[in-house]
Structure formats: C-alpha cells, structure tokens
Q: What sequence folds into this?
C-alpha cells in the first residue's frame, strides 16, 4: 500500500497501467480488510510527541479498549525538549510535564495493558517509531506487538494515488467521511484515540456495494470532490479568522 515495507505496496507500474482505481471500491475495501482488524482483543493507541525527528519522544499516550474504556491515559516527562512545531499542534508545554512520570515508569503500564493485544492506530508506523525511540532513549527494550494501521486501510478505500502509492489522509478527513462528530479534545492522545475508535467501527460497517460514506455516491470522483471542498472550506475559514484578527488589531491601534 504505502512503501515497500507493506505487503500490498502499489508500485509505479500499477499506477501507469491505471489498475489501481479500476479495481473498484468493493475490491479495494476487501483488500484493505486483509490488513486491518478491530475486535474485542484490540486496543486503540495514540501519542503526542516532542516532535517528528529521529530523537523525538512521546509526551502523552492514551490506550483505549474496544469499548472505549481508558486503559492508559497519561502525560510523560521526556528527556528532550518539546519542539515549537509540536507545541503549536498539541499545546503541551515543558512546564506541563515537570511533575509527570518518566517513560520507564509509564512503560510498565504500557506493557501490561497491551500484552496479548492487537494495537490499532491511525498512522501506526509513526506511533510505533515514537515508542521505540522513547524506549531507546531510556535504555528499554521495545516489546513486540501486532499493529494495525487504520490510516492505510482508509486510504486504500478512498483510492487516490500519489507516486505509485495510495495517498495518505488525515484522521479528521476520515472522521468527516464517516460522519464522526468533531472531537473537542482533538490533538490530544485521548481525543484522537476516541476518534480513531469511532472511525474504525464505521469503517468496518461500510458497505461498498451500496454507497460511499455520507451520501449515495457510487462514483469515487464524487468523494474526491467532497474532500477537496472540505479542504477549501477549511482554508476559507482560516483566512476569515486572520482577517478578523487583523481588523481588530488595526481598530485597537487607531483607538
């Protein structure tokens, strides 16, 4: 699907022959289900981090069970600084983490609640990398677990391609497509876990023989138009907010 690390990687040859989209929605959904699973033995995981680099660490982790019950939801004191970019996304500052437990202590809880479980995450490769890096920073051995990635499954369902792979989509886009209400705690580990679980359940209930999510769109291009319109509306709202802020600033100066 995405990159040669994944078993159903779609390479440039398939893209050039036009075979990806022609497979049809039902076949893409069937293929996605081969590499995604959610059941009573699953746990949902999300993290917030100090950044995106190879030395970044997690600073917040949440794990929910299949029913949405909290198994672990805690902030973690890192050994590296929180980057400005990451701080602007999740709003977690260094002072918010001073009294938190460090990863070696929280890791014991992580190992306990994930033992024998399948981990479901949105962009699982990223969360797994961050946990591995945090373990390495504290000289801990990352325990092996089976991971499933909802992002890759959803992206295959949508079917858009880029450079021979299916194009990745944000969790907010997946939530919008499956009519999952916006989460007030978005960009917190707990909020994103809740959204991931809700999207995963809707994804598994999707019937490709009847319709695409939200509306009775049988043409995949109709979904693309909806996704593009969503992004345009989001950009428009952001511009309106900037204009309002600028006008207020000018008014204050002139006053």
A:
């Amino acid at each position: 699907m995405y990159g040669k690390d994944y078993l159903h990687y779609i390479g440039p040859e398939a893209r050039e022959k036009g075979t990806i989209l022609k497979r049809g929605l039902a076949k893409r959904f069937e293929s996605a289900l081969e590499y995604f699973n959610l059941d009573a033995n699953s746990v949902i995981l999300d993290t917030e981090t100090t950044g995106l680099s190879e030395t970044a660490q997690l600073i917040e982790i949440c794990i929910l069970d299949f029913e949405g019950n909290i198994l672990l939801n805690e902030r973690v004191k890192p050994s590296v600084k929180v980057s400005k970019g990451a701080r602007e996304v999740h709003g977690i500052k260094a002072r918010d983490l001073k009294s938190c437990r460090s990863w070696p202590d929280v890791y014991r809880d992580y190992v306990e609640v994930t033992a024998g479980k399948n981990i479901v995450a949105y962009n699982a490769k990223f969360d797994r990398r961050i946990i591995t890096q945090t373990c390495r920073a504290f000289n801990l051995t990352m325990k092996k677990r089976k991971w499933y990635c909802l992002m890759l499954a959803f992206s295959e369902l949508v079917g858009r391609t880029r450079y021979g792979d299916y194009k990745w989509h944000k969790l907010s886009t997946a939530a919008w497509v499956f009519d999952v209400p916006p989460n007030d705690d978005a960009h917190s580990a707990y909020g994103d876990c809740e959204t991931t679980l809700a999207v995963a359940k809707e994804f598994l209930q999707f019937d490709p023989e009847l319709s695409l999510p939200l509306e009775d769109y049988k043409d995949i291009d109709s979904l693309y138009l909806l996704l593009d319109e969503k992004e345009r509306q989001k950009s428009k709202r952001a511009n309106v907010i900037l204009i309002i802020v600028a006008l207020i600033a000018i008014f204050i100066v002139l006053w």
User: Anything to note?
Assistant: The chain has two domains: 12-214, 219-255. Residues 12-214 form a domain with the Nucleotidyltransferase; domain 5 fold (CATH 3.30.420.10). The chain has ten helices and seven strands. The beta strands are 42-49, 58-65, 70-75, 118-121, 146-149, 161-162, 165-166.
